[in-house]
Design brief:
Number of helices: 5
Distance between the termini: 22 Å
Structural class: mainly alpha
Helix content: 40-55%
Order of helices and strands: HEHEHHH
Shape: globular
Radius of gyration: 14 Å
Length: about 100
């Protein structure tokens, strides 16, 4: 279980980034990539803490809001590429998807 490479503490990632609010209670761990990519997200720390509202509640939760989900994926790619080189996450995702095309 890797520590998040996207945040350095336990607070709602979206509350802090979007509203400059430090929400620290009622947090849930969210893997930025799911399905066949979830093990990759866990291994490389591509996960964040989110308050319940930003995790699993419509309309703002990342499981209901495509824009919020896309922003998290964008931020994860930036964090990964800063550590491992430009374009490396896209290459890794492509390799995982080629190995298990039916699971994506």
């Amino acid at each position: 279980m890797a520590k998040s490479i996207m945040q350095d503490g336990k607070y709602c990632y979206i509350c802090r980034k979007e509203y400059n609010i430090n929400t620290v209670s009622g947090l849930e761990e969210h893997h930025v990539f799911g399905g066949s990519l979830r093990p990759l997200a866990e291994h490389y720390g591509l996960k964040v803490y989110l308050c319940h509202r930003h995790h699993n509640e419509p309309p703002l939760g990342v499981h209901f809001n495509a824009t919020a989900r896309w922003r998290l994926e964008r931020d994860a790619k930036r964090a990964f590429d800063l550590r491992h080189g430009a374009g490396m996450l896209d290459k890794l995702i492509k390799r995982v998807q080629e190995e298990a095309p039916h699971a994506v």
